Amino acid sequence: MATYELNIPVSDQEIEKLKVGDIVYLNGLVCTARDIAHLKMRELVENNQPLPEDIRGGAIFHAGPVMKKNEKDEWFLSVIGPTTSIRMEPHADFIGQQGVKVIIGKGGMGPGTKEALQKYKQVYVQACPGCAVVLAEGITGSKKPHWFEAGMPEAMWPLNANHFGPFLVTMDSHGNSRYDEVQENAQKIVKEILDSK
Questions:
Q1: pLDDT by residue, tens only, the chain of 197 residues
Q2: Residues acting as catalytic residues
Q3: Using CA atoms, how far apart are residues 152 and 148, in angstroms rounded to an integer?
Q4: 10 with 167: CB under 8 angstroms?
Q5: What is the largest CA-CA distance in the chain?
Q6: Which residues are paired to 144 by β-bridges?
Q7: CB 30 within 8 A of CB 61
Q8: DSSP assignment letter at 55
Q9: What is the pTM of this model?
């Protein structure tokens, strides 16, 4: 297991170094994106319109942050925790096409993502649930949100990250998945229990 500090935009070569079990910290622009933001991005691309942020070489965080405003009417992050990533599975290839290199979330993703991670040189990293306050310490500010009309959690928030993490690599660009390992081990245990009866 190794620890990496990645500066966004991240290159293919940096992604290929990462293996399941490694720890990652991020510096640069990290954009939150849940269900609505993914649909909005797809709509823009299908209509040959630019995305609101340049996410090539970047990171997408499956999260609905709690944002507040300061006395200068500027947005700042209060807490941020991951949302369940599998809901974004239908967008796996699309996100790869846009050049995203790091996908942050919880719970893992499916075979479409596993394939896209290899095809587009990406990684999926697990954000620890329950660490929303700790993660917030790695965000130094935010630009104005996109699609705020969809609500605070569903808006895309462009966040400025500095030593943002830690995140655990659980799916890498070489076809390895910690979630596959867990599932295989669970199936073995179930079989052993059933065979012992």
A1: 899 999 999 999 999 999 999 999 999 999 999 999 999 999 999 999 999 999 999 999 999 999 998 888 888 899 998 999 999 999 999 999 999 999 999 999 999 999 999 999 999 999 987 778 889 999 999 999 999 999 999 999 999 999 999 999 999 999 999 877 766 666 666 666 667 76
A2: 38
A3: 6
A4: no
A5: 67
A6: none
A7: yes
A8: -
A9: 0.91
